[in-house]
Queue: 3 jobs
Job 1
Amino acid sequence: MERCIKAILPPKRPGTKSVVIFDDGTTKKYLPQVAAEQGLFVGMELSEAEYQALEAANSAASAKQRAVRIVSAAAVSRGDLRQRLTQKGESPEDAENAVRWLEELKLLDDAETARQIVARGVSRGYGAERIKQMLYQKRIPRKYWEEALETLPDMREALTDFLQKRLGEEPDEKTIRSATQAALRRGFTWSEVREALERIKSYDFG
């Protein structure tokens, strides 16, 4: 089955796609660079194999374009990017190829992403356990965790400041319990919280 291009509508604005109308009434949207690379023009006839090749080229380019947008907006790992691309509708094959392409361009580095995630957790005042959760959620391979966590500074002062704000001047048992639970949720261990509470007002927590 051959298809003939009846009309090509240019993108309405930067960042949008060209619209290609075929003689059978089919309407497809293609990235401008794909239309140019494939040499599309009105009256051009495409065999089924040529049409499928055009579709594959457009899908691959779409995945790469979306991958660039994602990594430009936030630090992501290979696994995280791959999942986000497939969730957006890209095929697993196109998603994997886009990931490899960005790696080749040195725009995707799990080790560096791990360090950025640790730094982000530190800036938010999180403890090591919460930061480990962040690494897991971002699908950072565990082989990169240890090196990234070595950059984790002493968070005792941050924990003490957090608890002091929660406790106020004369905290009761309920306030102390609430502050303790909040600190635990932020990724600090019970022993770290206990030491911080003792530093603040020498409470006896048995």
Job 2
Amino acid sequence: MIAIKDMTPEEVANELSQLIRVLRAAGRNDLLLRSIGASVLEELRLEAAKTRLSRLLITKDYRLFLVDYDNIEIELTPIHKAVYLLFLNHPEGIEFKQLRNYRDELLRYYMTTAKMLDKEKIIEGVDHLIDPLDNGINEKCSRIKKNFLSMMDAYTASYYFISGHTQRHIEGSSHIWYERLKIITLPRDLVILSHK
């Protein structure tokens, strides 16, 4: 028998495939999951999704099109576009409670997507969104999600809309805290920005 280190990647994949069949036939998906690991599973999920995901084109006038789905347009109002562009520009994610730190950027996006609106209304709208005691940002994210879900299946849409991602942090041995980030998980190499 050849040692794994002496195998080609194709031979390793073939061996792995056989081992997976053995574990599945034994009904031991738990062992399979443990051996693969959650982070690798997430990477595999993303790799599998890439073949189904469309490029997202953002035009100079901030219209959003799914290029590989017959150029279907995702229609959003200017405030929804501003929120979407903010989160798209931050692949690391943003906590809703930290939105006030992104006020200027959100204001800039809203001013460029809502050229016909009064400046005072735009400022009022942004201040409404960044208020941690207001539900406005949740409502905007729900509307964005609904628009994507109306165009595609839930699994595919989950890469395009703003969703939750909890990140666990451990400081020292006794302090654990969680970041409740909101992110768009679409790989950024699938985003085409024609406005830059």
Job 3
Amino acid sequence: MSEEGVNPQRRRLLLATSGLGAVGTVFALTPFVLSMMPSARAKAAGAPVEVDISKVEPGQLLTVEWRGKPVWILRRTPEMLKALTEDEKFLADPKSSVAEQQPTYAQNTTRSLKPEFLVLVGICTHLGCSPAQRLVAGTASGLGDDWPGGFFCPCHGSKFDLAGRVFKNVPAPTNLQVPPYSFISDTRIAIGVDKQGAA
């Protein structure tokens, strides 16, 4: 092909315009591509959460956030643990038979790795309200003399014992969820991952 008749200024202008167009396209697409990547906050929302439980006294409940949900860590007293076997006749699923509600290592009476510490997602399994803590047994809870202690959902009246097991004849269909968790040490828990690596 002959270069006769080709305007060098026009060629430079076309090359410069093409280059600027390419740069402009990259600048225009960058925010769009970056918006598709998860933010640091979104990544952290799914990451395991480490919790120091060294200062949690017997009978005290600590609330932390994991994946945007409240997670309760309750350090149960010997009296609270004793109540778990006494209230089974009032429970809809005392043996925690719905497998999706807890890891296999929490499919027991205490629904925990260590009986003293309970770890629960604090969201009612009925419509997603957050139950109130009514940890004290008896009339002091406002739920009657026979109340063994546990959690009461004020939205529709669902009741759960001190292992998060649902009572019979309430709207909630299943026990409160136990998230995957593991003990890093005697004083630290990792919520969101267990020793088998489940998340």
